[in-house]
Amino acid sequence: MKITPDKISDFNKNQGDSYVAELDFLKNRCAKQDVSIDDIVSKVADFQVAVPSWALGAGGTRFGRFSYGGEPASLEQKLDDIGILHALTRSAGAVSLHIPWDIPKDIKAIKEVAASHEIAFDAMNSNTFQNQDGAEASYKFGSLGNIRKDSRNYAIQHNLEVIKIGKELGSKSLTVWLADGANFPGQANFQTALQNTENSLKSIYNGLPEDWKMFIEYKPYEPNFYSTIIQDWGTSFMLANACGERAYTLVDLGHHLPNTNIEQIVATLMFKGKLGGFHFNDSKYGDDDLTVGAIKPYALFLIFNELVYGMQNNPQNPNLAWMIDASHNTKDPLEDLLQSLEAILIAYAQALLVDQESLKVAQQENDVVKCQEILQDAYRTDVRPVLKAAREKSGAAINPLQVYRSFGVRDALIKERGSQTKATGL
Ligand code: PSV
Ligand code: MN
Ligand code: MN
């Protein structure tokens, strides 16, 4: 299924979407506060989010999995699917691979497929939370933090191997997420486990190429339900500092206990120049991995407000590696990703609309009401015309989901790949 720029531009023309008048209305409104809509349109058009290779099939839960049909059965097909998303949106120009789920058999061929879709290789993800067939050491009781040296070494070697594959592909970063922890009190010594984890991470960091970054992801619980070694941003931050300059914390929106002030975490890490990666999703209860913006869009906006502030004011923080880390059981995976991309760009555009100068004045005057008004004024603005303009500017579909459905993409994929499919790695 190839979606060409010509097909998209024809659809855009024939559709006659009237967003231009709505954009003019926004331009007039913004002229009053010295914000340039053209500038926001350009920034939105430039924003690229990586798609993880594990989000392209219907996910499952421990209670089962229902096939969606037409799911990718190889890494090549996964790249083809991201190619569809990128052609439709021009904002999904990268993939984040998981090893060993996505070991490329032929690196040159995989690079060619990716290049044909203009897809770059973003962060590589290692996997030390599952034992693979023929594993020489077990991760049952942990990996980098395991009490047993053979398991720790095996996990370190795996991460070094992931770096090697990533180097060949042209990736520049490694994300480490550990399931390590304990299910019951007394099972592990907290200090020993943390020390082992720190030492192991340092060994991996020592094998990191000069131009690479390492991202350390945290999560409070699951699959361990009593304690997790890298449970929160503070632990990740501490470990990143122990490793060195090119080690950073990675924030995944679903990896917090309910009501955690994630925007404040973002601000603190960017202030310290240590926020490296970002995983988008949404949740009601735990690490639910729901569509971005589906549950708490205002929280997403407040988080983006801090991200934008950091991008504008914290040169000490590197450019962030953005990725969607969502999964679901009931939706068309590609439609779900299109919805996530839409929500991300909406929150980003709204955050760019915040009148920073007025906010600073209102904060200095302790005008609490005005501060809230300024933020909510941006949040309550319908920025969808900005997204449409950004898409048209970059050759994407003005309404990606509509085009996806009109072109019958899923039906074509089911015809090509079958109706009872299972994406590799799931
Ligand atoms: C597990 O919670 C997880 O979703 C993490 O967020 C990682 O980013 C991902 O799996 C892949 O390892
Ligand atoms: Mn994640
Ligand atoms: Mn997760």
UniProtKB/TrEMBL annotation:
Query: Domain of life here?
Result: Bacteria
Query: A GO molecular function for this record?
Result: isomerase activity
Q: Which UniProt keywords apply?
A: Isomerase, Manganese, Metal-binding
Q: Kindly give the SUPFAM superfamilies that the UniProt entry links to this protein.
A: Xylose isomerase-like (SSF51658)
| InterPro entries given in the database record | L-rhamnose_isomerase, Xyl_isomerase-like_sf
This protein is called Sugar isomerase
The species this protein was found in: Autumnicola edwardsiae
